[in-house]
Amino acid sequence: MINNCFPFLLLFLGACQTMKSDSASLPLNNPSERSKIDVLVADQFGTDYGTKENKKKDYTIVFQQDKKLEDLISNVHFFIYDKKTESIVFEDKLEAGTVDWHSDYEIVAISRVKNANDGTRTIREYYYDVQKREKRAVED
């Protein structure tokens, strides 16, 4: 019986892991070795965060998920880091949301905002172009 359950247990545990901790790659103990992105990440998220680079590897989405017990989908706080200028170009918080690269220089962000009256959720979606620094909302 235990041998039959083991593969399902591994699958379940793997599905539960939604974020990685990149703290092992950060030289947090020696400030002189820390890059600007390391400092920004440590200040905003500590050691519990994830990253997603665009295909050209010149921009990085750095995010942290915060899941409440009653929510199925985590809240996401993220920023987009420009490696060339070593700066944050955009930052947002999404309620029950997701963020990912839509193309080389455009992200798609989806938020599921809870309505105070009836508890239902309204989906809000937008695209952000990191080169043009323009946010474009998706209309229903």
Topology:
Elements: H1 2-16, H2 36-45, E1 50-53, E2 59-66, E3 75-82, E4 87-94, E5 98-103, E6 106-114, E7 121-129, E8 134-137
Antiparallel strand pairs: 1-2, 2-3, 3-4, 5-6, 6-7, 7-8
Averaged pLDDT: 79
Distance between the termini: 50 Å
Percent helix, as a range, is 10-25%
Strand order of the largest sheet: 1-2-3-4
Task: Give me the secondary-structure category.
Answer: alpha+beta
Number of helical segments with 4 or more residues: 2
Assembly type:
single chain
Unreliable stretches? 5-30
Number of beta strands:
8
Based on CA inertia axes, which overall geometry fits? globular
- Give the DSSP E fraction (strand runs of 2 or more residues): 35-45%
Q: Give the biggest sheet.
A: 4 strands, antiparallel
String of helices and strands: HHEEEEEEEE
User: Radius of gyration in whole Å, from Cα?
Assistant: 18 Å
Descriptive report:
This protein is of the alpha+beta class and 140 residues long. Helix content is 18%, strand content 40%. It contains two helices and eight strands. It has a four-stranded antiparallel β-sheet with strand order 1-2-3-4, covered by helices on one side. A four-stranded antiparallel β-sheet has the order 5-6-7-8, with no helix packed on it. The longest helix has 15 residues, at 2-16. It is globular, with a radius of gyration of 18 Å. Residues 5-30 have low confidence and may be disordered.
What descriptive keywords fit this protein?
alpha+beta; 18% helix; globular
